[in-house]
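Our preliminary data section would be incomplete without showing what the modeling component actually yields. Below, a chain of 284 amino acids is followed by its predicted structure, encoded as tokens that our downstream tools consume directly.
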Amino acid sequence: MSAPLPVVRGVAELRAQVSAWRKEGLTVALVPTMGALHAGHLSLVKRGLELVDRVVASVFVNPTQFGPNEDFARYPRQEEQDAAALTGAGCHLLFAPTVDEMYPQGFATAVSVGGVSEGLCGAVRPGHFAGVATVVTKLLLQCLPDVALFGEKDYQQLAVIRRFARDLDIPVRIEGVATMREEDGLAMSSRNAYMTPEQRAIAPWLVRGLSGIADGLRAGAKAADLCPMAASGLLKAGFDSVDYIEVRDAASLAPAETLDRPLRILAAARLGKTRLIDNIGVEP
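Predicted structure:
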């Protein structure tokens, strides 16, 4: 039987453990999460174990990345189950700070990233990426791992993190890990638990719509023609609304029309109270 996963809640404790590992000559990875862990999160831990000697996972539901009408209060919190899942995946330490530890009284700093944060989710969720960039900057500096791992499901978020880590000279390798999917293709997400059985049956149409756009691009069609058709298809399938479906350059996230370089097809749509995001890559 596995020993209980050690849990630390303070930055000083986290740094002390990482420092002890460093003195042993060990390398360290960080997997930042908001908890409610699923197989996608655990794949990040497993990838970390392939790259380094010790893996730290953080669980922190970050208030600064939620808008005033979003789901901060109801976002699932289940630390005991998360710790058990992390133990099974081989994680070595759980960092589970309080809001006061991350944002002490008088906290007055934000990290704002231009370019890749604009449009897509950045347009629909104002302030979201500043909250993400601020908390991830703090986590990287608190732990100072050799590598930090993030899922490609949040592809724009991954681009934002890569951008500020490079711009601010944070000495951490940012590693993207492929999206984990259910058997019917739906991208794994903690928010999938919000859906009714009827909504869950509709949800896989999101990735099917993205795949249809990819097929069209390979056949020589343009994004301006393909994306509106895909959005219409999602509404017909039962989605309540579509925030966006767009084709972007895979590296810069600049808008793209034709398959003349690696692209990313990204979408966000709503089923009832659940907002689903997904993306797929397509190569020329």
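The chain has a mean pLDDT of 97. The domain at 7-177 is CATH 3.40.50.620 (Rossmann fold). Preliminary results of this kind motivate Aim 1 of the renewal.
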